[in-house]
Design brief:
Radius of gyration: 24 Å
Bound molecules: ligand MTE, molybdenum atom
Structural class: mainly beta
Largest sheet: 5 strands, mixed
Number of strands: 27
Mean pLDDT: 93
Number of domains: 2
Shape: globular
Low-confidence stretches: 1-5
CATH topology of the largest domain: Sulfite Oxidase, Chain A, domain 2
Number of helices: 8
Oligomer: single chain
C-alpha cells in the first residue's frame, strides 16, 4: 500500500489503476474536496431565488409519481425478442440510473411469454390439487387471512446478459439492455408451506407443477423441498399489491431460483411424484453444453456482479476522485466479497458492501477511485458464501455451446477511454 499526496489530500491506494482503500470511502470525499478533485460547489448568488421558493406548490395527490425531470428513467424495451411469439415481450431495469438495492415497482424488469394479462382479482383462483389429502381453492380474499412473511429477494431471468453471452462483438448499450433482467424487491406473501400443509401433501408428492393464468399457461416443475423451505405466494411488492407486470394478483416466489420458475398470475399448484417436463423446462430453459448435450433444471442463479457507476454509455467528467458502485448477488445465499479491478484484472481491491447483506438479494458494493485520466478497464468479481466465484467470460464460454445464452454470469469489464467514454468490452 502506498500513500501519495495530491494537493495536500492523502490518498491511500489499494490496487492498480487508482483504486483507493475501502476505508477511504468516507474519507475520500473530504480528501477529494480538499484536493479539488470533487469540484465542490460555490456560494449561491443572493439575487437568484427561484420561482418555486416564492409561490405555493402543488396540492397533495392520491398516488405519487417521479419528478417530471426524471421521465427518462424508464425500463428499456428489449426489441430483438419482440417477434419471437405473439406478445413475447421483455424490458430491463435501468440500473445505471438507480442507486440503493430495491428496484422501484414501475422499473422492475419484465418477461412476458404471452403478454401481460388483465386479470379480474375477484375471479382469479389458485388451486392446490394432485397428490394431496384435501384439494383446495383460494381466492384473494381468503388468502388475506393467512399469516404473511416479508423478505427482500432478487429475481433474475436465466436469459439475463444474453447479448454478452452470444454476440461476437460486445454490444454498446447501457446496464438496462445488458444486465437489466434482474431486479430486487421486498416481497410479502403467504409461506407456501402453510398452504401445502393445509392441503396435506401425500408422502409420494415430491414435486409441484406451478402454472400461470396467462395465455401460454407457463408451467414449471419445482421440487417439493424448495416449495416447503422458502417458497412464497407473493401478494405484495415493496408494500403495495403486486403490479400486473409482476403477476397480479399473485405469483410464486422461489428465492434465488431462475426467474422463469417464479410463475406469475399463479393459478394452479399440482402436486406430482416427478417433474412433468413442461415445454418451458424441456424446450426452453435448458442450457446447451459445449459437447451439444442439454442441461436441464439449473435452478439457482449463479454468483454475479456488475459495476453500475460508471458503466457503458456513461461519460466520465474528467480525471478526479469517483465512487465506483455496483450490484452483486447469488442464488446460493449471501454475497461474501466483491473485488474491483481498475487495471483489467492485474490487481484487485476489496469493495465495501452496504449492509445488511441479505441472502438471495441484490447487494450494493462501492469503492473510491482516483482516475488519473489514462485509459483502463474496470471490472468487478463477486464471491458468495459457498465460495463460488464469478467466472471470466472465456471460462464461461468454454463450458457451453456457442449458441447458449442461459445462466450467463461472467465478469463485466468496462473500458474507460482517455476521453472518458465508458464502453462494453470482452476480456
Ligand atoms: N405465468 C407466467 N409466469 C412467468 C412468466 C410468464 O411469461 N408467464 N415469465 C417468467 C420469466 S421467463 C421470468 S424471467 C419471470 C419474470 O418476472 P417479472 O416479469 O416479474 O420480472 O417470470 C416468469 N414467470
Ligand atoms: Mo426468464
Amino acid at each position: 500500500m502506498t500513500r501519495s499526496d495530491i494537493d495536500g489530500a492523502a490518498l491511500e491506494y489499494a490496487a492498480g489503476g487508482g483504486l483507493l482503500n475501502r476505508r477511504m470511502l468516507l474519507a475520500s470525499a473530504a480528501a477529494g474536496t480538499a484536493a479539488g478533485l470533487l469540484q465542490p460547489s460555490v456560494a449561491r448568488a443572493e439575487a437568484d431565488i427561484p420561482e418555486w421558493s416564492k409561490t405555493a406548490g402543488a396540492r397533495a395527490r392520491g398516488y405519487g409519481m417521479p419528478a417530471a425531470a426524471e421521465s427518462a428513467v424508464q425500463r428499456a424495451i428489449i426489441e430483438p425478442w419482440q417477434d419471437v411469439a405473439p406478445a413475447f415481450s421483455l424490458s430491463g431495469t435501468p440500473h445505471h440510473r438507480l442507486r440503493g438495492t430495491i428496484t422501484p415497482n414501475g422499473l422492475h424488469y419484465e418477461v412476458h411469454h404471452g403478454g401481460r394479462p388483465d386479470i379480474d382479482p375477484a375471479r382469479h383462483q389458485l388451486m392446490i390439487h394432485g397428490l394431496v389429502e384435501q384439494p383446495l381453492q383460494f381466492g384473494l380474499e381468503a388468502l388475506e387471512r393467512y399469516p404473511m412473511v416479508t423478505a427482500a429477494h432478487f429475481l433474475e431471468c436465466a436469459g439475463n446478459s444474453l447479448f454478452n453471452a452470444v454476440m461476437p462483438e460486445p454490444m454498446q448499450a447501457g446496464c438496462d439492455m445488458l444486465h437489466g433482467l434482474v431486479s430486487n424487491t421486498e416481497w410479502t406473501g403467504v409461506p407456501m408451506a402453510v398452504l401445502m400443509e393445509e392441503a396435506g401433501v401425500k408422502p409420494e408428492g415430491k414435486w409441484v407443477v406451478a402454472a400461470g393464468a396467462d395465455g401460454p399457461s407457463l408451467a414449471r416443475s419445482i421440487p417439493m423441498e424448495k416449495i416447503m423451505s422458502d417458497g412464497m405466494l407473493a401478494l405484495y411488492q415493496n408494500g403495495e399489491r403486486i403490479r400486473p407486470e409482476q403477476g397480479y394478483p399473485m405469483r410464486l416466489l422461489l428465492p434465488g431460483w431462475e426467474g422463469n420458475m417464479n410463475i406469475k398470475w399463479l393459478t394452479s399448484l399440482w402436486v406430482t411424484e416427478a417433474p412433468v417436463h413442461t415445454k418451458d423446462e424441456s424446450g426452453e430453459y435448458t442450457e446447451i453444453l459445449a459437447d451439444g448435450s442439454s442441461l436441464q433444471f439449473t435452478f439457482a442463479m449463479g454468483v454475479k456482479s456488475f459495476i453500475t457507476h460508471p458503466s457503458a454509455t456513461m461519460t466520465m467528467n474528467g480525471p478526479g476522485v469517483y465512487e465506483i458502485s455496483g450490484l452483486a448477488w447469488s442464488g446460493a445465499g449471501k454475497v461474501a466479497k466483491v473485488e474491483v479491478s481498475a487495471d483489467g484484472g492485474e490487481s484487485w481491491a476489496e469493495a465495501a458492501l452496504a449492509g445488511p447483506v441479505l441472502p438471495q438479494a441484490l447487494t450494493r458494493f462501492s469503492l473510491a477511485w482516483h482516475w488519473d485520466g489514462s485509459p483502463l478497464v474496470l471490472m468487478s468479481r463477486a464471491t458468495d458464501e459457498t465460495g463460488a466465484v464469478q467466472p471470466a467470460r472465456t471460462d464461461w464460454k468454454a463450458r457451453y455451446h456457442a449458441s447458449n445464452f442461459l445462466h450467463y454470469n461472467a465478469i463485466q469489464p468496462w473500458q474507460v477511454t482517455a476521453e472518458g467514454a465508458v464502453q462494453n468490452v470482452y476480456l
